[in-house]
C-alpha cells in the first residue's frame, strides 16, 4: 500500500484529515513563513502570551502581594508547573520541579548523586551529546579533584552520527559511578532505549540521569517504567514556553531524602522557609532541589502552553509527529536524493525523535538560501539541516512546499550566492 503521495493535493488532504489542525491557530505563525525550527525555539501561542500578561498584570496590581494572590499560586508556581509537566512523562506529581536552565539542573543532578570513591569515580557519557552537558560533567569531575581525561568515560560514536546502545552497556564497568545521556541526540534525532539502558545501569549499581531536551513535548515517556534517578530538560524547544524559559528537573522519589548538591532557601520546607533559620530543612520532594527565587516571567508561558499539551495529549502529538516526519522523509527519498541530500536519522519509529536530520555537503549555505525563501531551518555542524515539523503547528502543505524549495535551491545551485562564513548564532 502506498502511504504517501507526491502531490500538493495529497498534502492538502492530509491537512484536512489532521486531528490537530485546529490547534495551529493558537500559535503565532507569520504569513509566508514555514517554521521548521521548533526543536530550537518553539513558536509563541496565544495561551502562553495570555498567561505571561496575566502575571505582569498581577505584579502591576499587587506588587509584592503577587506571592499571596490566588491562594499563593505564584509562591508555589514550581509545584503547579511540576505537577502539570509530570503528566507528560508519567511521573509522580512531586517528582518534577521547574528551575533555572538545563545546564544548571545537570550540575544540580550530578552534584547530588556523584559521590566518587577510589574504586568507582567515573562518569559515563557519549560523544554526541550537546556540549553543555559535557562541560557540566567535566567541571563536576574537576570539582571533586579528578581529571576529566581519566574520570569521564566517553563512549565514541562509530560514525559521528549515531551511538550504539550495546557499546553504552559494555561501557558500564565497575569503575562507573554515574551516567548522563540524552534521550534523543540533538543532531541525528536518534532516540535511545531509555528503559533498557536505565535497567542495565541499575543492575550494576550505577546512577543514571537523562537529558530530555530533544524529546520532551515530542515523545511521551513513561517514567514509572523507565525509573531513572534524575532527568533534566529545557522547555523552550518543542514545549514552546519561550526563549530562555524555565527548565525542568526530575528526581526519582526514592531519592527524596538525599541532600541537594546545590542548596538554597527556596528548597527549604515551605512551612519554615520564612523563619529564615540557618539550618537547611529541605522539602522531601523535587522542590527541595530549588535554589533561589523563581522567575515568574519565564514560568508563566509554560503554564499557558501546557494547557494545549493537556488538551491534545502526548499520544496524538507523537502520532502526528511520526507521520509528518515519515512524510518528509518519503518526499526527500522521491525528490531530493538525486541532488545530494540524504537522511541522517534512524528510519525506525521507535528509534527516532521529532526532527528529520537532512544531510547535504552544502548544508550551511542551503540553510541561508532556505531563509530567503521564508523557511526557518536550523543548521548543525558540519553538514546537517535539522527540520522539525512540530506536530502542533506545522502542516503537511508546509512540508510539501519545503521539499519543493529544497529542490529548487539544489537545481538552481542557489546556495552559491551565499558565503560559507559562519555567523554568531547559526
Ligand atoms: C541536549 C541539550 N541539553 C542542554 C541544552 C542547553 O540547555 P540550557 O540552555 O537550558 O542550559 C541544549 C540546547 O540546545 C540541548 O540540546
Note the topology.
Layout lengths: L7 H10 L16 E2 L10 H17 L6 H4 L4 H10 L9 E4 L2 H12 L8 E5 L4 H13 L4 H4 E4 L9 H6 L5 E7 L11 H10 L3 E5 L11 H4 L3 E4 L13 E5 L44 H17 L1 H23 L5 E2 L12 E4 L3 H10 L2 E2 L1 E3 L3 E4 L8 H16 L15
Parallel strand pairs: 1-11, 3-4, 3-5, 5-6, 6-7
Antiparallel strand pairs: 2-8, 7-8, 9-10, 10-13, 12-13
Helix pairs in contact: 1-14, 2-11, 4-11, 5-6, 12-14
Pyridoxal-5'-phosphate (PLP) binds next to helix 5 and helix 6.
Function: Catalyzes the cleavage of L-kynurenine (L-Kyn) and L-3-hydroxykynurenine (L-3OHKyn) into anthranilic acid (AA) and 3-hydroxyanthranilic acid (3-OHAA), respectively.
Pfam family, one: KYNU_C
Pathway: Cofactor biosynthesis; NAD(+) biosynthesis; quinolinate from L-kynurenine: step 2/3; Amino-acid degradation; L-kynurenine degradation; L-alanine and anthranilate from L-kynurenine: step 1/1
Structure description:
The chain has about 425 residues and is of the alpha/beta class. The chain folds into 2 domains: about 10-30 and about 315-410, Alpha-Beta Complex (Aspartate Aminotransferase, domain 1), CATH 3.90.1150; about 50-310, Type I PLP-dependent aspartate aminotransferase-like (Major domain) (Aspartate Aminotransferase, domain 2), CATH 3.40.640.10. It has helices at about 10-15, 45-60, 70, 75-85, 100-115, 130-145, 150, 165-170, 195-205, 225, 295-310, 315-335, 365-370, 395-410, and strands at about 35, 95-100, 120-125, 150-155, 175-180, 205-210, 230-235, 245-250, 340-345, 355-360, 375, 380, 385. Strand 5 (about 175-180), helix 9 (about 195-205) and strand 6 (about 205-210) form a beta-alpha-beta unit. The protein is globular. Pyridoxal-5'-phosphate binds near residues 103 and 132. It is an enzyme of class 3 (hydrolase). Pathway: Cofactor biosynthesis; NAD(+) biosynthesis; quinolinate from L-kynurenine: step 2/3; Amino-acid degradation; L-kynurenine degradation; L-alanine and anthranilate from L-kynurenine: step 1/1. InterPro entries: Kynureninase, PyrdxlP-dep_Trfase, PyrdxlP-dep_Trfase_major, PyrdxlP-dep_Trfase_small.
Amino acid at each position: 500500500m502506498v502511504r504517501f503521495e507526491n502531490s500538493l493535493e495529497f498534502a492538502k488532504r492530509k491537512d484536512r484529515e489532521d486531528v490537530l489542525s485546529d490547534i495551529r491557530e493558537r500559535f503565532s505563525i507569520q504569513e509566508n513563513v514555514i517554521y521548521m525550527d521548533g526543536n530550537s525555539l518553539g513558536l509563541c501561542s496565544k495561551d502562553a502570551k495570555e498567561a505571561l500578561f496575566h502575571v505582569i498584570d498581577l505584579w502591576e496590581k499587587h506588587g509584592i502581594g503577587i506571592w499571596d494572590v490566588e491562594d499563593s499560586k505564584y509562591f508555589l508556581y514550581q509545584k503547579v508547573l511540576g505537577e502539570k509537566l509530570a503528566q507528560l512523562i508519567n511521573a509522580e506529581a512531586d517528582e518534577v520541579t521547574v528551575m533555572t536552565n538545563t545546564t544548571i539542573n545537570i550540575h544540580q543532578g550530578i552534584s547530588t548523586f556523584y559521590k566518587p570513591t577510589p574504586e568507582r569515580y567515573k562518569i559515563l557519557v557519549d560523544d554526541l551529546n550537546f556540549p553543555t552537558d559535557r562541560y557540566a560533567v567535566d567541571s563536576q569531575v574537576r570539582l571533586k579533584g579528578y581529571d576529566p581525561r581519566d574520570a569521564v568515560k566517553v563512549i565514541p560514536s562509530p560514525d559521528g552520527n549515531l551511538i550504539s546502545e550495546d557499546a553504552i552497556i559494555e561501557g558500564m564497568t565497575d569503575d562507573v559511578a554515574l551516567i548522563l545521556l540524552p534521550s534523543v541526540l540533538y543532531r541525528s534525532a536518534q532516540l535511545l532505549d531509555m528503559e533498557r539502558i536505565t535497567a542495565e545501569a541499575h543492575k550494576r549499581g550505577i546512577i543514571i540521569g537523562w537529558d530530555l531536551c530533544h524529546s520532551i513535548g515530542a515523545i511521551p515517556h513513561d517514567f514509572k517504567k523507565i525509573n531513572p534517578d534524575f532527568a533534566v530538560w529545557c522547555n523552550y524547544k518543542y514545549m514552546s514556553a519561550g526563549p530562555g524559559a524555565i527548565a525542568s528537573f526530575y528526581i526519582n522519589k526514592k531519592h527524596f531524602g538525599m541532600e541537594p548538591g546545590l542548596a538554597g532557601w527556596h528548597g527549604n520546607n515551605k512551612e519554615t522557609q520564612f523563619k529564615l533559620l540557618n539550618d537547611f530543612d529541605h522539602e522531601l520532594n523535587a522542590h527541595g532541589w530549588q535554589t533561589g527565587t523563581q522567575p515568574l516571567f519565564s514560568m508563566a508561558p509554560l503554564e499557558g502552553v501546557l494547557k494545549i499539551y493537556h488538551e491534545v495529549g502526548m499520544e496524538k502529538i507523537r502520532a502526528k509527529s511520526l507521520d509528518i516526519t515519515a512524510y518528509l522523509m518519503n518526499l526527500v527519498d522521491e525528490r531530493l536524493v538525486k541532488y545530494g541530500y540524504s537522511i541522517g536519522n534512524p528510519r525506525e519509529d521507535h528509534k527516532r525523535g521529532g526532527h528529520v536530520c537532512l544531510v547535504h555537503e552544502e548544508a550551511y549555505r542551503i540553510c541561508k538560501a532556505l531563509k530567503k525563501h521564508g523557511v526557518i531551518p536550523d543548521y548543525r555542524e558540519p553538514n546537517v539541516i535539522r527540520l522539525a515539523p512540530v506536530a502542533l503547528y506545522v502542516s503537511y502543505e508546509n512540508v510539501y512546499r519545503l521539499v519543493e524549495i529544497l529542490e529548487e535551491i539544489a537545481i538552481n545551485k542557489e546556495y552559491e550566492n551565499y558565503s560559507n562564513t559562519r555567523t554568531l548564532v547559526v
